[in-house]
Write a structure and sequence with these properties.
Layout: H1 2-5, H2 11-48, H3 52-80, H4 88-110, H5 115-122, H6 127-134, H7 141-169, H8 179-187
Helix pairs in contact: 3-6, 3-7, 4-6, 5-6
Length: about 190
């Protein structure tokens, strides 16, 4: 009767509810701690499943090979032009694959075995970044070796092209260069 007309419980009823309320609070806290422990266990399991030896060796390879690939491309650009202002038209096609690979790496992390991840990890201009996003999540050795082989071939090809551009470009000092002119240098037979 007292509950119907007032918002307060009798003192003896409140004293009965305190232990129950405390018990519910303790159980909720225990469940939260158990959930956090389960999350931490999954995190540690994921960290322990990474093959660090493959990851570190792959990082060294992809860093060095990617550096050499882009160094050859930038050397070709540098040998074809006279001033820094002239390089701007040639820099965009070289830097777009780098920017694209950083964007694609986000999708690769979500689906490391998908077709986007596979194709961008074997293209030499994007493989140094994309493959390093795939390796911690597990990648078949065939994909890894294919990517490495194509990156080496890409480096050799860009170095050869850079040498052809350098051979002609160094003699064309003072001449304004465009894509058509560079194409002529590349197909020129000695």
């Amino acid at each position: 009767f007292q509950l119907a007309f007032t918002n307060q419980l009798p003192k003896d009823e409140m004293q009965k509810m305190i232990p129950a309320n405390s018990q519910l609070t303790i159980e909720a806290g225990e469940e939260e701690i158990a959930e956090q422990d389960n999350d931490m266990a999954r995190i540690f399991e994921a960290i322990n499943s990474i093959n660090y030896e493959v990851m570190i060796l792959s990082f060294l390879f992809f860093f060095l090979a990617g550096y050499l690939l882009y160094a050859a491309l930038f050397a070709a650009i540098g040998s074809a032009v006279d001033s820094e202002a002239d390089t701007q038209q040639f820099m965009m096609p070289v830097t777009i694959p780098l920017i694209l690979s950083i964007v694609i790496a986000q999708f690769v992390i979500q689906n490391p075995d998908g077709p986007v991840a596979f194709w961008f990890s074997i293209i030499p201009l994007t493989s140094p970044v994309v493959m390093m996003a795939r390796i911690p999540l597990g990648v078949p050795y065939f994909d890894l070796y294919l990517s490495m082989g194509l990156l080496i071939l890409g480096f050799i090809a860009t170095t050869w092209l850079a040498a052809k551009i350098y051979r002609t470009g160094i003699l064309m000092y003072g001449k304004k260069v465009n894509y058509k002119e560079i194409w002529k240098w590349l197909i020129y037979k000695r």
